[in-house]
Design a protein that fits this description.
α3 runs antiparallel to α4 (about 95-125). The protein has four helices and no strands. It folds into two domains: about 1-70; about 70-130. The longest helix is centred in the N-terminal third of the chain and has 40 residues, at about 1-40. With about 130 residues, the chain is mainly alpha-helical. Helix content is about 80%, strand content about 0%.
Amino acid sequence: MRDFSRIGHKAITWIEDVGLLIIAVATVIALSIEVVSMFEARTVTLADLLLLFIYLEVLAMVAMYLDSGKLPVRMPLYIAIVALARYMILDMKSLDTWKMLGVAGAVLLIALAILVIRYGHTRFPYGKEGNS
């Protein structure tokens, strides 16, 4: 039974690594496609920069997970804020007042969640044996 558990753990770890590699490669491909399209258009917009920032944050998240084996909850929240900001910038003309307020409210709620998480980590830090 102990060997089965060890083999299962190794298999799951291998699957995680393959999944992270797929995410990293797909992100690099998407990043490359975006850069090529900017060169072809001979222009760089704020939406392009925010999209590149999202790709870099995804790569940083993959690297952080590979380094520590842990994924901070804040990283996806940062990505969500940038994605919502990009959505607002791209669709500014087509958003009515209520949708704009809804997206802004979502950004505010995510920012507050990040503050609560940061406060919890500083006020109640994990012990050396604790998991994050």
